[in-house]
What we know:
The chain is mostly beta strands. The chain has a single domain (2-208, 237-267), classed as Porin (Beta Barrel). The protein has helices at residues 2-19, 137-140, 253-267, and strands at 23-39, 49-50, 60-64, 70-85, 90-109, 115-133, 142-162, 168-171, 180-190, 193-200, 211-216, 226-230, 240-250. An eight-stranded antiparallel barrel has the order 1-4-5-6-7-9-10-13. Strands 11-12 form a two-stranded antiparallel sheet. Strand 7 (142-162) and strand 8 (168-171) form a beta hairpin. It is elongated. 25% of the residues are buried.
Amino acid sequence: MKNYIIAIITVLFASFSMQAQKNEYRYMAIRLGFSNAFSAQPSPNVEKYVYGQGDNIPQMGVKPASSFLGHVPGVKASILYHFDFTGDMAGIFTGLDYNFTGISSKYETFTKGLNIVETHRMHMVGIPLAIKYGPDIWDTQRYVYFGGQINYIASMYTTEKASWGADKGRKLEPEEYNKTVFSIFAGLNWRVLNVQFDFYPKSVFNEKYELVTGYQFPSQGDQESEKVVLQPNKGQVTNFFKLTVSVNIPYGWLSERSFKMRRMLLKFPWK
């Protein structure tokens, strides 16, 4: 996977280096939109537990529900810098991208009597780099594009909605998740409308994270106690994808369209 990532970044930067001095347009754009993230169920993990309601149910072993598609709505905001090559048929863009997205999973007890929906939401900041193609890009703002993005997870929160009513949430510790994740994306821009598909091929969770739940004391006094350690993230979702619909506003493009429209109206034979 690392070799593919390096190859993609190398190709994109090589294109940028060759075309940076041959651009026809350079401009900023703002992109604001809503996203929907989808994820499959995690793998079974015998060390995954949830805590029940009351002292009479201290903890329960759970397994992933047989059929459940995780869905988490979110938001996206980007500031992008575009370089359109000579001929205005291709270009590249980079910038700064913010995503509030997440992953959702459903677990149930082995008797299937109780269930719980666990949702992880994260604040991510990323740097995208993409190549775009289209006819007369600046004038029409119609193009397709693809690229890669390095994302930094600033924080992650988890909420548990239980069928028995014991809902709770908490902020995850930094060692529970991977701080940086890579994603690939492809999209279509049609004037001010933008649709983008993102795929995260690697898990955002630190599967090696260990949770100490207690100590096991030996029967003989001359032996040291041992930690009881669980790996709750083992078998977590390894990848997920996201579909985002946004409004894309290139700086200066709307004002240019307005100016052209006013000129057309002035030339129209109203009388």
